[in-house]
Amino acid sequence: MKPKKSTRIRKEEIVQAALEVIGTRGVKALTIAAIAEAAGMSEANIYRHFGGKDDIYFALADFIGTVVMGKAATIAAGSRKPMEKLETIFFSHISMIDEHPGLPRFIFSEDVHLGNPRLAENIAFRMGSYVETVSGVIAAGINEGDLRPGLSPRETALTFLGMIQFTALRWTIGGASFDIKAEAEKLWNNFLLLVR
């Protein structure tokens, strides 16, 4: 007999299954039945861990907050040089999108923005924290002379994140028709020319 999985592991499996459904079929296709099928468990098991789809949406926002924004905060708090931190944040975010195509589909979905104001507020708060984190790294880069004096840390952070988001949007809409990591490499090198 297999050992019983903990609630935390089950919830993680459900969130991963939800991301898989969104990544392949979009947010509109996200039903409890679709999640159960992707997770290889019964719908009753999903309801044992989540009250419904809205709870799963919030769990997805938490996952994004941890793997993308939380990771950026951890990198920013480290001891490396600001430009190394920025590069690591940039490429770890791109890798996360490549590994989880459901992330941009979820973030860009009108169903999420308009259908659930509390969820939209939650995601907007997390994005604001992300902008602050990246702004702090950029400000440190300016102070250390690695980035051009006169750059605005906040506007440069928004440019940096816009580069990621627009690439993710193009990649998602195009059905992952180009190598997002190769594209990211070109964008990063061009960004350096602009800000150094």
Tell me the CATH superfamily: Tetracycline Repressor, domain 2
In the predicted model, the low-confidence regions spanning at least 5 consecutive residues are: none
Helix run count: 10
Q: Roughly how many Å apart are the termini?
A: 60 Å
Strand coverage percent: under 5%
CATH topological fold name: Tetracycline Repressor, domain 2
CATH hierarchy: architecture: Orthogonal Bundle
SSE string: HHHHHHHHHH
Structural domain count: 1
What best-fitting shape do the alpha-carbon axes yield?
elongated
**Spatial extent as radius of gyration:** 18 Å
Number of strands: 0
Category from helices, strands and their pairing = mainly alpha
| CATH class annotation | Mainly Alpha
Largest sheet: none
Task: Please give a structural write-up.
- The protein is mainly α and 196 residues long.
- It has helices at 7-25, 32-39, 43-49, 53-76, 82-99, 102-107, 110-115, 117-143, 153-173, 180-195.
- The chain is elongated, with a radius of gyration of 18 Å.
- It has one domain (52-195): Tetracycline Repressor, domain 2 (Orthogonal Bundle), CATH 1.10.357.10.
- The longest helix has 27 residues, at 117-143.
- Helices cover 78% and strands 0% of the residues.
- Helix 5 packs parallel to helix 9 (153-173) and helix 9 (153-173) runs antiparallel to helix 10 (180-195).
- This is Transcriptional regulator, TetR family.
- GO terms for molecular function: DNA-binding transcription factor activity; transcription cis-regulatory region binding.
- It comes from Geotalea uraniireducens (strain Rf4) (Geobacter uraniireducens).
- Residues 31-50 bind DNA.
- Keywords: DNA-binding, Transcription, Transcription regulation.
